[in-house]
Amino acid sequence: MNGHIVSEIVVSERTSRPRRRLVGALATVGVTSLIVSSLAMDRPARVNAAYATQPTAATPTMGAMPGMAMGTSTPGPTGSTPTVPMTMYDGAYRMEMLPLTGNAPTAAERAYAVRLAAVAARFAARFSTTAAARAAGYRTYGVLDVPGQGDHYFDPIASIEAEMGGFDANRPPFLVYNGARLAGIMYYVPANTSLARLNRLMPRSLVPWHKHVDTCVVGSARAGHVIAAYTSAACTARGGRFYPSTGWMAHVWLGQPVGPTLFSMDLPGPSTR
């Protein structure tokens, strides 16, 4: 999404002057994590305090799909890695998903996946319910409740860091709830992240990175909703605000084995939404 909504949101928040400057500097970056981060900048210390009591662990590194496909991916030459996203839809949300490489995950990639699942389990122990997330300072808004993918609660500090290109596997910017119960976590990186870096952060042999594109929001990010209007002109005509693209996202779901359902774009089970 873009920087215009950031300015709109910051005006309504009691942010400190240095944090206003930070949001202003980032406003041209313009995707979802930055927008939702700025919504909560008046109370970041509560989330930081929650993290201070989290168990510490070394940051996982790799070392040496479900979802409804409504489009196609153009394959490369035989044996090459697919690089053209598939177009997908969940309700009114249009997404692009990078297909899996088709390569068998290496032993190092599988071990890394196990460690990411362990990170999700640690968060589940502390933030198993939406009430626990809210008490710790996480927030959510209407546009973050995605059909088939759950209700996304964001950490204001971690999501700003993610928008700026940071990646900490031990501190995912989003918690994802199915109803009131934690279903998983979500990582986020800027839209201009290279395919090579995406693969280093979370291996594409297992992880179908995705992003939301051509999003039309009617109303505010807080209380608005997404409608099926996939061009700027169509969105404006219906009273909405058009956002061309978010950054890339990847889920890690609780209780799933290493394989397609652990990192699927959609919830691995029925939605209770």
Please give the oligomerization state of what you see. Answer: single chain
Low-confidence stretches are 1-59, 61-80
State the total count of DSSP E strands.
10
Helix/strand structural class: alpha+beta
Output the radius of gyration: 18 Å
The succession of helices and strands, N to C, reads: HHHHEEHHEEHEEHEEHEE
* Percentage of residues in DSSP E strands: 15-25%
The main pleated sheet reads as: 5 strands, antiparallel
Percent of residues in helices: 25-40%
Q: Mean pLDDT, as a whole number? A: 77
End-to-end C-alpha gap: 24 Å
Number of helices: 9
Number of domains: 1
Quick one: overall form?
globular
Report on this model:
With 273 residues, this protein is α+β, with helices and mostly antiparallel strands. The protein has one domain. It contains nine helices and ten strands. It has helices at residues 3-11, 17-26, 32-38, 45-52, 107-126, 130-135, 156-163, 195-201, 232-237; strands spanning 86-90, 93-97, 145-146, 150-154, 174-178, 181-189, 210-218, 225-227, 241-245, 248-253. Strands 1, 2, 7, 8 and 9 form a five-stranded antiparallel sheet that branches. The protein has a five-stranded antiparallel sheet with strand order 3-4-5-6-10. Helix 1 (3-11) runs parallel beside helix 3 (32-38).
